[in-house]
Structure formats: structure tokens, C-alpha cells
Amino acid sequence: MTTSLLLRLAGPQQSWGSVGSPSYRTTELAPTRTGIEGLLNAALGVPRGECAPLVADLDILVRIDRPGRVEWDFHTVTPVPDDVAEARGRWALLAGHRRDDKPIDWMVPRGTTKWELTKGETPTMLSRRAYLADAEFIVAISGPDEHIEHLHAALRQPVFSPYLGRRAFAPAFPFILGTRPTDPSVALAEHPTEAEGRLRVLRIDGDRGTYVTSVQPNAA
């Protein structure tokens, strides 16, 4: 028998970035495979950048209850990433500015009017990042029963706090919806919703989900 673990990914903000640069980062319109795996790995206590074997082979479906809207915010990044700093330095040289022995003195932020910084000063850069506002997704995760049970227990007592793409974006309550002794597509069709009309269901195999079907669950 297949067992499915249901999670509700909802909150004021969430971000599922897949492409971009240090100064410009977009968000996908639904949770990504890497984002969900990162959430599960955090609960298990797996170090950043690694993936537990039991997480890698899961089947993941996402129901879009509320798509939300894309908004943008701004951050300052300090120090400037090496690749960005190097690119800006090259532009400075092409513009006729002289490179000295201290790279930090000429790798300066975009928009700065002088190319020489005070000794010891660290340059910063402005980063523009997208996020989804007021979105809600129901995630159904299936796999071997022992793996689902292990993940369910880990999410209830996580080693690292789960978040929705960024550490500042905590999931709203209720987050863990429990397990269902059924296929994930059936679990998503049966779980009640406050949304109206038919809801799209995506299979999450990569950073962009593949449309599978649409369902019309009972009203909550």
C-alpha cells in the first residue's frame, strides 16, 4: 500500500528560485524539487548542500490552491561575490581606471561615483529578489512506508527549522497535514480546500513542475 505525506506550504512570502545571479534572482511559480528536498533535508539534519538518500527517490506532487502573486524586494550583499566583483573590475579597467595592488580598492558597487574606496572599507551590492506573496500549495510526498514515517517524524521534531525557500520565510500553520494510506494524486483529490473551481496538480521532478491533472476537492 502506498502512503502519502501531506504538507501545506503557505505563508505571507515564499520563494522558489532556480535561475538568477547574485544581483538578480527570480522565483518559480510553484515549489521546486530542490526547494522541497532542502526542506526535508533540513528537518532530517542533513548539512546544507547534501541530500539524504531517502529524500532523493521520493515522488512529489503539488496542488496549487492559491497561486499568489510575484513581488520584488531588495537586499544589500556584503561582501560582493568574487565573480561580480571581478566583472565590475574589468569594466573599470575598460573605462580607463587604474587597477592597483589591492583588488578591494577597485572592486566597487555599481552606481558608485568613485573607484577608490577608503582603506579597509568593504564594498556592497544591491540584490533584487522575487518572491510569491500569499500563495498556498498542498504537497503530497510518497515513497517507501518506512521513509515516509521517518520524514513525518523528522518534520514534527526538525533538527533545522523548515522554511519556504528562504530562511526568513517560515511556513504558516498548519504545516504538516499528516499521512494518508493512498496514492498522492488521490490524497490531493480528497484533501479539502477553501479554493473554488478545479485545482491544477503538478509533478515535481525538477525546478519546474510538469502538469499532471486537475482536481476538484470538497470544500473545507
Describe the sheet with the most strands.
6 strands, antiparallel
What is the number of strand segments? Answer: 11
Helix and strand succession? EEEEHHEEHEEHEHEE
Lateral strand order in the biggest sheet: 9-1-8-5-10-11
Number of helices: 5
Q: Approximately what portion of the residues adopt beta-strand conformation? A: 25-35%
The CATH topology of the largest domain turns out to be Alpha-Beta Plaits
Please report the first level of CATH classification, the CATH class of the largest domain. Answer: Alpha Beta
The general outline is globular
Structural class: alpha+beta
Unreliable spans are: 99-119
The whole-angstrom Rg is: 22 Å
- Give the name of the CATH architecture of the largest domain: 2-Layer Sandwich
- Give average pLDDT, whole number: 81
Any overview of this molecule?
The protein is an alpha+beta fold and 220 residues long. It has two domains: 3-69 and 132-215, Alpha-Beta Plaits; 79-123, no CATH class. Helices cover 22% and strands 29% of the residues. The chain is built from five helices and eleven strands. The strands form two sheets. A six-stranded antiparallel β-sheet has the order 9-1-8-5-10-11, sandwiched between helices. Strands 2, 3, 4, 6 and 7 form a five-stranded mixed β-sheet that branches. The longest helix is centred in the middle third of the chain and has 13 residues, at 82-94. Residues 99-119 have low confidence and may be disordered.
